[in-house]
């Protein structure tokens, strides 16, 4: 479980419930299965916490996004987009496309179900 603080509330979050995180200026949104949480923690710091939780589950696909690999339905290589199981579409940095494919392969080997 993660402790995520916003201005007045401390949220206790199961990292597996995180679909993706999005940086917006000086704050970060965590998009969960059932809600959206705002934190003033940087995406860089939050990504570090998530990697420590499970390095094969989360991937920084773009400067502004960290994605839960388990939530990826498809990767559109031509348009550099990720399609997620909640209907969201995220960008993939061209420089991270190959690393994402490798991370996805590692995730699938570790989680064959």
Sheet with the most strands: spatial strand order:
5-4-3-7-6
CATH architecture: Beta Barrel
The pLDDT mean sits at 92
Structural class: alpha+beta
Could you list the spans in which at least 5 consecutive residues all have pLDDT below 50?
none
> Helical amount among residues, as a percent range?
10-25%
- Cα-atom Rg, whole angstroms? 14 Å
Cα end-to-end separation:
23 Å
CATH class: Mainly Beta
Strand tally: 10
The proportion of strand residues reads 35-45%
The biggest sheet, with number of strands, parallel, antiparallel or mixed sense and barrel status, is:
5 strands, antiparallel
Q: In total, how many domains does the architecture comprise? A: 1
**What name goes with the CATH superfamily?**
LytTr DNA-binding domain
- The global form is globular
- Named CATH topology: OB fold (Dihydrolipoamide Acetyltransferase, E2P)
Q: Write the H/E string, N to C.
A: EEEEEHEEEEEH
Total number of helices: 2
Could you characterize the architecture of this molecule?
The protein has 113 residues and is of the alpha+beta class. The two termini are 23 Å apart. The model has no long low-confidence stretch (mean pLDDT 92).
List keywords for this structure.
113 residues, alpha+beta, three-stranded antiparallel beta sheet, 2 helices, globular
Furnish the topology, listing elements before pairings.
Blueprint lengths: L1 E4 L4 E4 L4 E7 L2 E6 L3 E4 L3 H11 L4 E5 L2 E4 L3 E5 L4 E4 L4 E3 L5 H14 L3
Antiparallel strand pairs: 1-2, 3-4, 3-7, 4-5, 6-7, 8-9, 9-10
């Amino acid at each position: 479980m993660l402790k995520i603080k916003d201005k007045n509330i401390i949220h206790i979050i199961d990292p597996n419930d995180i679909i993706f995180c999005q940086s917006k200026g000086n704050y970060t949104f965590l998009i969960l299965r059932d809600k959206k949480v705002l934190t003033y923690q940087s995406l860089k710091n939050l990504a570090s916490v998530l990697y420590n939780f499970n390095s094969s589950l989360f991937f920084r696909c773009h400067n502004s996004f960290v994605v839960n690999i388990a939530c990826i339905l498809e990767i559109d290589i031509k348009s550099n987009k990720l399609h997620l199981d909640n209907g969201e579409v995220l960008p993939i940095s061209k420089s991270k496309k190959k690393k994402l494919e490798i991370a996805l392969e590692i995730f699938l080997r570790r989680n064959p179900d």
